[in-house]
Amino acid sequence: MNRNVIIVIVLVVLVLLTAVQAVQLSSLKQSISQGKVNIGTAPSASSGASVPSSIQNLPSMVGGC
Q1: Residue 16: which domain range?
Q2: What is the dihedral of CA 25, 31, 35, 40, to 10 degrees?
Q3: Model confidence over 2-23: pLDDT tens digits?
């Protein structure tokens, strides 16, 4: 195949991917503005999640072996 044909094919694929992402972004933006998106919360130590003992004293181990 000619090099120019390959370049055109790659550019067409990239433009199509960009168009799909633009549609998805627009849909997400609409969902956010309408309040349809639920944002979860990260588990915290106060919610009963336990921290492994190997990293509980991590700040005191900085710079040491």
Answers
A1: 1-33
A2: -60
A3: 999 999 999 999 999 999 999 9
